[in-house]
Amino acid sequence: MSKAVFFSQFGVVVAGVAIVFSAMAEEKLTDKGPESIGAITNAKVFFVSPKDGETVKQDFVAKFAVEGLKVEKAGAIVPGTGHFHVLIDTPPLTEGQAIPMDEKHLHFGKGQTEAPLKLKPGTHTLVLQFADGAHRAYNKMLIQEIKVIVK
């Protein structure tokens, strides 16, 4: 067998394996699993600090918690687990939507339960939103929205 034929066949095998893994990943991301609508009934997320209406400095630490679920790193989709996102001056996402990664959608995919934030002076809306390992938003029970006044 010539090298050209071998590498041509090898390339087809590699492409085939990539397609299979891509399909498996897509299947995993679209599987609703037990976290689908209505499945989570006894859980909530909340800001430990700051509190709604609180005045904070431009640099402050936000602390967050969840009850009824377990905080885990992003990546694996494990029933009953997820991680936090803080949305700044933007509305929460609906259940199942992937949370974007930009300056208004902060991801805490390492399982953090607190983080330093820096905001410009003024009134800001902070949304705490819990999501699964693929950053897909859980239902509206796992959202808390607060306002803070930044000096």
Model description:
- This protein is an alpha+beta fold.
- Strands 2, 4, 5, 6, 8 and 9 form a six-stranded mixed sheet that branches.
- It has a single domain, classed as Immunoglobulin-like, CATH 2.60.40.
- It has one helix and nine strands.
- Residues about 5-40 have low confidence and may be disordered.
Q: What is the CATH H-level superfamily? A: Immunoglobulins
As for the number of domains, it is 1
Query: Strand count, sense and closure of the main sheet?
Result: 6 strands, mixed
Shape, principal axes of CA atoms: globular
CATH topology: Immunoglobulin-like
As a whole number of angstroms, the C-alpha radius of gyration is 20 Å
| Level-1 CATH class name | Mainly Beta
Query: Number of helical segments?
Result: 1
- Helicity level, as a percent range? 10-25%
Mean pLDDT: 82
Query: Could you list the spans in which at least 5 consecutive residues all have pLDDT below 50?
Result: 4-38
Structural class: alpha+beta
Task: Please report the total strand number as a whole number.
Answer: 9
Q: Ends: how far apart?
A: 73 Å
SSE sequence, one letter per element: HEEEEEEEEE
Could you name the key traits of this structure?
3-stranded antiparallel beta sheet; 1 helix; 6-stranded mixed beta sheet; Immunoglobulin-like; alpha+beta
